[in-house]
Amino acid sequence: MSTPASSTSGSGTTVGALTALYPLLSGLSATARQRIETEGRLLDVPAGTRLFDEHQPCTGFPFVLSGQVKVAKASASGRELPLYRVHAGETCVISSACLLGHNDYNAYGVAETPLKLLVLPAALFEQLLAEPDFRRFVFGLFSERVADLMQLVEAIAFHRLDQRLASLLLGHGKTLHTTHQQLADELGSVREIVTRLLKSFADQGLVSLGRNQIDILDAAGLRGIAAEKK
Question: Do 114 and 86 contact (CB within 8 A), yes or no?
């Protein structure tokens, strides 16, 4: 992970803050805890910062202490498909896969909000795998993220775009402040198709469209579309 951000070495409260968010690590040995304190880097990262890019080597293993990271795959044409988001108490499975396989990144990550990260050097990550609690944490992460990615594959392969859009609009309250392009990016689609679907929803009285704003008029109707079978 390469981040143009302010950084400091681990402080005396680093391990305590880390295990509060990542309780599976509470059983680390005293030696491991001391190395995290002395070798881990605390980073304050502004929103919008590109944390890593495709074809870059991974140089560290990040723990998110606060904020949110989006991990996405980009196409040559500029379209993107969000793969998952990393919140406080989680970490990035692509980073761990790159470190374990000694491969470059095959996606990119961006700070969607201001972040506070603790980044372990690659060498320390590899050595910590000898710790049972750390090893369980890393492979438990793989299990969770694979399940999330399988749900994404299922949605793309088996759900119509109007179903996915209806589902995306739900659960954010009565008003969404977003653009058609942002929705298209979330769905891995193009703006023109999303705009056409939104206009169809508006014609059905499900939503009202404004500038960078979508008002939900009929949430039950949107849930009906989201739940339709092929």
Answer: no
Q: Where are the beta strands (DSSP E) in the chain?
A: 6-9, 41-45, 50-52, 60-66, 68-74, 80-87, 108-111, 115-121, 175-176, 207-210, 213-216
Q: Give the three-class secondary structure for 1.
A: coil
Length of the chain: 230
Q: What is the largest CA-CA distance in the chain?
A: 64
Pairing of strands 50-52, 115-121: unpaired
In Å, what is the CA distance from 6 to each residue of 10, 34, 94, 163, 182? Answer: 13, 22, 23, 42, 29
Note down pLDDT in tens along the chain; length 230 residues.
655 555 555 544 578 888 889 998 888 999 999 999 899 999 999 999 999 999 999 999 999 999 999 999 987 777 788 899 999 999 899 999 999 999 999 999 999 999 999 999 999 999 999 999 999 999 988 888 888 888 777 777 777 899 999 999 998 899 999 999 999 888 888 889 999 999 999 999 999 999 999 999 999 999 999 988 65
Axis-axis angle for helices 180-187, 161-169 (nearest 10): 120
Q: At what angle do helices 161-169 and 191-203 cross, to 10 degrees?
A: 70
Q: Which residues contact 96 (CB under 8 A, 6 or more apart)?
A: 61, 125, 138, 141, 142
**Cα–Cα–Cα angle for 4, 126, 148, nearest 5°?**
75
d(CA 35, CA 128): 9
Q: Global pTM?
A: 0.72
